[in-house]
């Protein structure tokens, strides 16, 4: 099990960490080196997650042990995890409550002084659906409430009247150590997120993700964001413009009788993507869990039509996680698939042969045909959120290219403009998918898309064990019968 990224994936102040096998040991070492404070916000954080690095394992076996060690050394730890609608997202709400209970267990094993240095909050976004959408959704919500196991039923279930709807969450995955070290990307902290760069686990356990660890002024700016974001969302403070840390933020509507959605207050991540598309000369490279945003699809299409020399490499999972592994046929999953199909149709229509759209699979034959199989191989579930435009601009963070991430949920991403860091990121992402060093043509923004497209098409007809790397052509028509447009519904809900 490798404990450090390869030398070409890092420099003294910037490391690209592919999957939890690389990211978690680096994060553990950063926590071990903390002297004063650790501030973090994650969608999910399970203190029972196993420690991977030999250094951290000297403190114990789990993150509870590692955090207890930091507290005993005098380090203050402040963690915000996302809370969720207790009916519509009951398992996620239960996970947040579990994190709070774990924090209490950590405090109970420490002396009072050390215990007082730990602050863990499960934060429910303050935006609520207005009366009309609550009324419209109430039959569905009540059915879902009645179907919940008794242990998951919230106390609010005993109240009379229309149930509340909490449609927004904090989706960021970010930590700052001593205001000097920043850890940011798409990776939460629980056992489901564990995977290796080889992705040799069962398909339903794979999790391709990217996290960055760096030193510099970005860390101080990120610490300020973590200290303020809850006040900014509650409209108690005005957020400053992000320079290095770019955000999505929303707030409750002042008069939201009719509205399901919150009021978007910052969409810096979307704005940076659109600006990068417009300025790109040769190549736009994207890894994303979803491509459902009509604004992103229009921005990509406009860039393609404006510049005939511009190419696109887009890496997507073969199917959404809940459809591929859980057999979901729920309306939200079907609507999301319809939105992505429309976005891909628009983008491929504009780029034509200049678009290379691929999905990762394992280099082995699948035992049977199932939704989680593509091109005869088990899929690799992709959760990364990365953008590179030529060698001039890059971004890695927590936001998917869907309306929810770009308009509603709390998201954080790092804007990267240093060319040496962009080159490290590009080399790391490319090597991850191809599992080998690449020729210059495959890395040159002017020719990369054509090289990738050629090799990916060859992979489609090769036997799995003879393929080059992990990528095959994405199939936009896979399970197309599930796609369900919802005219009049906001795309930002999925």
Radius of gyration: 22 Å
Number of domains: 2
CATH class of the largest domain: Alpha Beta
Largest sheet: 9 strands, mixed
**Roughly how much helix do the residues carry, as a percent range?**
25-40%
Name the descriptors:
494 residues, alpha+beta, Endonuclease, Chain A, nine-stranded mixed β-sheet, eight-stranded mixed β-sheet, 15 helices, 19 strands
Could you explain how this protein is built, in words?
The chain has 494 residues and is of the alpha+beta class. The protein has a nine-stranded mixed β-sheet, with helices on both faces. The chain has an eight-stranded mixed β-sheet with strand order 1-2-8-7-6-3-4-5, sandwiched between helices. Helix 3 crosses helix 4. The chain has 15 helices and 19 strands. The protein has two domains: 215 residues, 2-Layer Sandwich (Endonuclease, Chain A); 226 residues, Endonuclease Chain A (Endonuclease, Chain A), CATH 3.30.870.10.
